[in-house]
Amino acid sequence: MPANLPPQYYEEEKKLKEARTPDEKIRIIERMLAIIPHHKGTDKLIGSLRAKIAKLKEERDKRPQTRKGIDALYNIKKEGAAQILFIGFPNSGKSSIVGALSEEYIEVADYPYTTKILQPRMMRYEDIWIQLVDTPALGDDNTNMWFGNMVRKADLICIVLSISEDVWTEYELIKEELNPHLEETKKPYIVVVNKMDLTDHAHKYEELEEKLRNEKTLCIPVSATHLMNLHELKEKIFLMSGIIRIYSKLPGKKPDLDAPFTMKKGSTVLDFAEGIHKDFVKKLRYARLWRKETLNGMMVSKDFILEDRDIVELHV
Predict the structure, then answer these.
(1) Among 216, 219, 154, 148, which Cα is nearest to 180's?
(2) For a Cys-Cys bond, which of 56, 93, 131, 253 suits 22, CB 3.0-4.6 Å?
(3) Domain 76-240 fold
(4) What pLDDT is stored for residue 189 in this prediction?
(5) pLDDT average per 10 residues of sequence, the chain (316 residues)
(6) Rounded-to-integer distance, Cα 9 and Cα 89, Å
(7) Residue 181's pLDDT is what?
(8) The model's pTM
(9) What is the Cα–Cα distance from 165 to 201, expressed in whole angstroms?
């Protein structure tokens, strides 16, 4: 009996080939097992995947703890649709913001440098997951060991400032550290001003916002403790991260609106086909596309540029 695996399985299979750590491979294989239809034709495949998980867990458990610590300090492997890096000075509230957005607690304290290593969390945005990375405060002894690498890797940088009399000075100092990497990579960034519930410095935010507007830099006021503007911050993170969601549709079937494929803005129909399975690139004849209320099953070429929430039906 043939396996008849859905397109989502092949997307995860591609991610598995690119995965590096045992934990990441285990999570991907678990998603593959959840996708696979259960019948006689898939029994051997399911058994093989479960055996791989057992072997990976054994490999992970034998891995030296010191190496795990080093990896967590210097490098976080991207998971989800995009990787967002939160940076700032001590007590800016990075950890509180990341914890509130992800709904996963991160240790916070009134004293500086509470965060010692890079800490990834997953944020749900509508129907996708986005990775947020909390970082040790700038000025920590280990800053140079992770800063350049993670800034270059991330899809978006969130500069976190705590509203105060010195908020503009803090921004300039962070930008000075970032500029060499931003100029090299053209990395997008946004400014998140935290603790806006402290109204004593509201005038300083107005001054900062005006200066950043002149720089054409997006600035978002929030309060992590009062959950102020966090929904707007989520939306801006998605819009600025440079990703789009594409939904697959099999001919004669309803589109799968529960598990979108995430791609970079500017991706084409051919890029989408390759993301599902490399063999589709050679076999693709044409595609049909649905886009909100403007296009309804229109036949499109391989180089047609996709937009967020497009529905694509591939014909091979």
Answers:
(1) 148
(2) 56
(3) Rossmann fold (3.40.50)
(4) 96
(5) 74 85 84 82 84 81 52 78 94 92 74 70 93 88 80 95 92 92 88 88 89 94 93 96 93 86 94 85 88 85 94 90
(6) 42
(7) 87
(8) 0.74
(9) 7
**The pairing of beta strand 310-315 with beta strand 286-291:** antiparallel
The residue behind tokens 């998603």 is: 31
CATH topology of domain 244-315: Ubiquitin-like (UB roll) (3.10.20)
- Using DSSP's 3-state secondary structure scheme, residue 276 falls into helix
For residue 1, give both structure tokens: 């009996």
Instruction: For the chain, give every residue range classified as CATH 3.40.50.300.
Output: 76-240
Per DSSP, 225 falls in state T
Amino acid (one-letter) located at 185: T
Write the CA distances from 266 to 179, 208, 281, 308, integer angstroms: 25, 32, 17, 10
Cβ contact 123:101 at 8 Å: yes
Residue intervals in the chain for CATH 3.10.20.30: 244-315
